[in-house]
Structure formats: C-alpha cells, structure tokens
Design brief:
mainly alpha, NUOK/Mnh_C1-like, CPA3_antiporter_subunitC, Helix Hairpins, elongated, transmembrane, transmembrane helix, membrane, about 120 residues
C-alpha cells in the first residue's frame, strides 16, 4: 500500500491507461475510440515524465553556475515525450479526417452499422 501512495503519478497513469483501453474496446463509436486512444497516449506521457523526474533536481538549464551531473534531471525522457505528443496530435488529426470520410461514405460512425453495410455490398 505504501508503494501506491509514493508512486501516485504512476498509479494514475495506469488507471488512465485502463480507462482509455476500455473505451477503445467497448465502444463502437469512432469518436469515442479516438478519445480512448488519446487518453491512453496521455497516460503513457504521464508515466514516462513521472519516471524521468527526480526529487530535488533542477531542469538542465545552467543559470547560477554548473551544479554537476547530480544536480540536474535527464532531459531525454522529457524531449521524447514532447516528440510523442507531436506524433499523437498528428495521429489524432489523421484519425479524425478518416472518421469524416467514413461518415461521408456510410452516413454513420458506428462500427457495427459500417460493418453491416460493408457486408451488404
């Protein structure tokens, strides 16, 4: 139980990931699936940023003299998550554009109805 209290960012990210995964699996609406995917992305970003943070250290910006390697946080996890956010936004935009085209073609964004229409063709 003590681990859950001290690692609350990690616990929150696992819960968020579960919520997003459940939305992805349980809903037939394409917009809800995209929202679930975005919640999962956010959970992964939160997890990696929480793992990259070290209590008592500063961002690697030298202001009042160099404090040594042990005085700063590693910037690589944060920069990788920034890149991941850009990829997630691009993926979301592409998925929404595809959803618009699917809605124009089938008149719905419910997967069950789309599959039924595809089988009838």
């Amino acid at each position: 139980m003590e681990g859950l209290i001290t690692n609350y960012y990690e616990v929150a990210s696992v819960i968020l990931f579960g919520i997003g995964f459940a939305m992805l699996l349980l809903h037939n609406n394409l917009i809800k699936k995209i929202i679930g995917m975005n919640i999962m992305d956010t959970a992964v970003f939160l997890f990696f940023i929480a793992k990259g943070y070290i209590e008592g250290r500063e961002a690697p910006i030298i202001v009042n003299g160099y404090k040594g390697v042990e005085g700063y946080i590693n910037p690589i996890p944060t920069s990788l998550m920034l890149t991941g956010i850009v990829v997630a936004v691009s993926t979301t935009a592409f998925a929404l554009a595809l959803t618009i085209k699917i809605n124009e073609a089938y008149g719905t964004i419910e997967l069950d109805e789309i599959i039924k229409m595809m089988k009838e063709r």
